[in-house]
Design goal:
The protein contains 6 helices and 5 strands, in the order E-E-H-H-H-E-E-E-H-H-H. It is an alpha+beta fold and 184 residues long. The protein has a single domain, classed as PAS domain (Beta-Lactamase, 2-Layer Sandwich).
Length: 184
């Protein structure tokens, strides 16, 4: 069993060229992580196997974002998100995560895979206000209030969450090809 570390206000920076990969079963239990994942999180491969992926969830992340991720995946849609995770050391790191699902030979959802890259500082700074607002709403009125806050925020911008992320990343001129494929 993995115990939650004491949260530190110290960021782990890593190369945007490093892909961090994890695969879970449909219940969110870790089945695979790559070496970059272990290097960045500080957890050993065997230490993570079978553990819920939520052990990496930073308390600054709105639960509603993970609800949206799961809802999309179970609906058979790929989804991306900007996520703040916590490492074994208690330090945090930001990623742009691209989630996909795999099905068995009978079409039943079997596993979920996440390909993550380091989020540039302007991306994490750009999403922090939204996430802080969502967390504040969550504390007062639960996840429904957080989802409503997000819905109103996006309505005001006349965008979906995916479009907002795309705009946030593209705004600084580093819109990568792996994000572009989400539009296809």
């Amino acid at each position: 069993m993995i115990y939650r570390p004491i949260i530190l206000d110290e960021e782990i920076k890593f190369s945007k060229k490093k892909f961090v990969v994890s695969k879970t079963d449909v219940e969110g239990n870790i089945l695979f992580v790559n070496k970059n994942f272990c290097d960045i999180t500080g957890y050993g491969h065997q230490e993570l196997m079978g553990q819920p992926h939520s052990v990496l969830r930073h308390p600054d992340m709105p639960k509603a974002i993970f609800y949206m991720i799961w809802k999309s995946l179970f609906a058979g849609m790929e989804v991306s998100a900007i996520v703040k995770n916590v490492a074994k050391s208690g330090k945090y790191y930001w990623v742009i995560a691209d989630f996909s699902m795999q099905r068995d030979n009978h079409g039943k959802l079997e596993t979920f895979t996440s390909f993550k890259r380091a989020a540039p500082e302007y991306v994490s700074k750009g999403i922090e206000d939204l996430y802080h607002g969502m967390i504040s709403a969550e504390r007062k009125g639960g996840m429904e209030a957080s989802l409503l806050f997000l819905e109103m925020f996006l309505e005001d911008k006349q965008m979906s969450y995916g479009e907002y992320l795309e705009d946030l990343v593209e705004e600084k001129g580093v819109f990568s090809s792996w994000m572009k494929r989400l539009k296809k």
